[in-house]
């Protein structure tokens, strides 16, 4: 007999997500992702000046503003037929790259590692009174010394098997605290060129507004060298440590087997990117075709027509719609659900022979004694993010060195009476698309499909579940009252529900 298990809310993610699973004989047989609010940014943008979009869409999420701002200006670049100069392109990459690094650090250390690390374990750490102290007490003391919030949210927690290696627990807890400072440093790095973080003011169509100075370049590079040391010496080894402690999670969390990447970080004005665009359908690589993207709404709380391309997309809420269970639409690529995110980017790049990615992936798999098939898993997603952070921080140092003080950062343009554009890029969480249509110098239509809309999508019109819903099937749940296994799988995707219910 099936047991229904409800995780509501899913904690340590951004936004309001509920997961409902059916468990039979100790394993999940069906899963549902439920985004529990509606916001309506696409409706808010109608009739506004097109250049407002870059600032308004950044407010979709305080975690992902750089991604939304970048996607919006990419869409406007196309609509206005403008190309930024090299300095503008490089600065956009530097802002986004710093944002990636902080996002990957928070996902592992502050959102997901607590599913594996035993923060309540009593270790050899000795207090001033001579008694053994728990890691939680140690972390709280460290946070208090830095005038940061205590670690009370670590408990209560699910009763489950956590890491038993005291060295791994202590090292990861120390890096948990250090990662807070590293995140702040990454934010500071982005703000050097973005104006401020979050909600950057320097991102505009045609380039950026921040000129290049040697002081800013030097400060950015100095910060990146510190971040590079932390990523290489702490983040990557900690992910490897967790993987070695929980090898079963290389076999859990496999999703739909389809992967989509829009590509990211332009390397030139010709369109080449550090992470290339492409798709994998059941392991077969294909060239990206954006005209086959649709959104289906049979199980979504919208009355909009189903199967529309986002260029023609509509946003008509229907909160009382029968049989619908979420405020997320169901994006599909040629009818297929697609997983997006760092894993998709890494797999697409690996298949296309990007040497920087191939070398890192092969090296990691060799250390873990695992094959490429292990990447399509909960731990594979963590590993992909860590390797991506290593690649990006190194590339940020190179991009910063390519900046040219005194050269332009912006290309001027005329706002057209009408036009269309699509801004396709990769947020840290995955493929992000913005579509804009302009009439009479005003926004006539604006649509977004964000990474978590892909990953947390409900069933489509044919009843095919979305990637996270599929990834939950087969997951063992030892104790329905403590479904830590399902939580680990869901958090490996790093859902951002504020974005998904934009």
Please, what is the CATH homologous superfamily of one domain? Cytochrome-c3 Hydrogenase, chain B
How far from one another are the termini? 38 Å
User: Order of strands in the sheet with the most strands?
Assistant: 1-2-3
Percent in strands: 15-25%
Residues in helices, as a percent range: 25-40%
Stretches where pLDDT is under 50 for at least 5 consecutive residues are: none
Class inferred from helices and paired strands: alpha+beta
**CATH topology term of one domain:** Cytochrome-c3 Hydrogenase, chain B
Continuous helix count? 14
**Overall pLDDT metric:** 94
| Shape call | globular
Supply Rg: 22 Å
Q: In the CATH hierarchy, what is the class of one domain? A: Mainly Alpha
Taking the sheet with the most strands, its summary is: 3 strands, antiparallel
Question: How would you describe what is shown here?
Answer:
It is a single chain. This protein is α+β, with helices and mostly antiparallel strands and 502 residues long. It has a domain at 83-252 and 381-412: Cytochrome-c3 Hydrogenase, chain B, CATH 1.10.645.10. 39% of the residues lie in helices and 17% in strands. The chain has helices spanning 41-44, 53-56, 65-80, 86-112, 135-145, 166-194, 214-245, 342-351, 355-368, 378-402, 451-455, 467-472, 484-491, 497-500; strands spanning 3-7, 17-24, 27-35, 122-126, 132-134, 203-204, 207-208, 258-261, 264-266, 273-275, 278-281, 284-286, 293-296, 330-333, 419-427, 430-439, 442-449. It has a three-stranded antiparallel sheet. A three-stranded antiparallel sheet has the order 8-11-12, covered by helices on one side. Helix 9 (355-368) runs antiparallel to helix 10. The longest helix is centred in the middle third of the chain and has 32 residues, at 214-245. The protein is globular. 51% of the residues are buried.
